[in-house]
Here is the input.
Amino acid sequence: MRNFVYQNTTKIIFGKGTEAEVGEYTKKHGSKVLLHYGGGSIKKYGTYDKVVESLNKAGIEFVELGGVKANPRLDLVKEGIEIIEKEDIDFILAVGGGSVIDSAKAIAVGHYYDGDVWDFFEGKEKIKKALPIGTVLTIPAAGSESSSSCVITKMDGQLKRSINTNLIRPRFAIMNPQITYTLPDYQTAAGAADIMAHIMERYFTNVDNVELTDRLCESALKTIITNTPKVLENNEDYNARAEIMWTGSIAHNNLLDTGRIGDWASHGIEHELSGIYDVAHGAGLAVIFPAWMDYVYQHDLERFAQFAVRVWDVDPDFKDLEWTAEQGIKKLKEFFVSIAMPLTLKELDIPADRLEEMAEKAVQNGPQGNFVKLDKEDVLNIYKSVLE
Ligand code: NZQ
Ligand code: ZN
Here is the structure.
């Protein structure tokens, strides 16, 4: 196990009806608020009204900025930065999923910077300060509600890039599983795939003696595998929704990679898909992650066999580790198919004509991955392996 420093400062307020408390929590951090949200689901399903009522009750003044798109855009971030300046706002409340929260995080860091906020995403500038943000989470997936990352798309060049700093972890995350009842099945499933990917990125490591975090990863994966079919069967299964929602945060709040080094190639390879073709990030990962596994599993057959046995209950063949390892990957693919996630680029309507460009962009800042280092040729091979 490696040395580590772990601190997660996001306060989690979890459970039924908790969005009604948002005014009180917001009041602790700010006096004038930017209420940031997406394309309308919060208005359609009543969350907006509840949040506004709670803010009003707490006497909090707010200005609204809606319209965050899935795979959030730099343009709206810049609009947000201007509003913050003009309206003298001191807190951002993001009501939505990863896209809304990430947009809020980018506005929060942009506020204290005179140059172009994109400089941070290109690694040209170091983040020193950020406005505080809080969130009412509406979809378990990205884990942004308590993560230190933020992913934004710049349409000019179709670049999807991320920043990472503890300064942008939300001060609080309000998580009511009931709010997730209205998710379309596709978003529920894409969210599950993303949560699993966050765990698997950490699971596939070259660091030895990480027994505790191995076991935590395995149980977190099993929780998603057991509960996702339940919510697809019954959208209003509170307990299953709750298990998924909490796992979504645990998967990406950095607890599971304490003492280890995660891989992250699949995320890097996927971001080129959602950056150019605007696909749901989780659906892109359902295609890329098993393909990555097929490409690298020979690197550590034992770890892949452990994944097969402990996560997927495969009966091991002690004389044939390779076969055992392959069964885990097969089970993962079968699971994605069972929740109607794609396994090929064709299913995402992604043609073959820009694979070279995507592979080039994916390794722009160096090889992808830590478990196995992948260069442009490797990334291209992975894309090609899942064309159809
Ligand atoms: O925009 P609205 O109308 O709200 O609809 C959203 C959106 O269309 C809808 N939705 C959300 N909650 C709903 C709902 N519909 C009905 N009922 C509800 N309760 O779901 C759609 C997807 O929302 P989005 O926020 O895009 O989903 P997600 O949370 O999966 O976020 C994806 C973004 O997060 C980034 C991804 O790359 C992608 O841009 N990620 C962020 C990370 C982070 N900051 O730590 C890590 C991840 O690896 C990921 O890269
Ligand atoms: Zn992700």
Summary: The mean pLDDT is 97. The chain has two domains: 11-178, 185-385. The beta strands are 11-14, 32-37, 61-65, 91-96, 133-137, 149-154, 159-164, 172-175. The pocket of 5,6-dihydroxy-NADP (ligand 1) is lined by residues 38-42, 45, 70-72, 96-100, 102, 138-139, 141-144, 147, 149-151, 179-180, 182-183, 187, 191, 194, 252, 267, 274, 281-282 (CB under 6 Å).
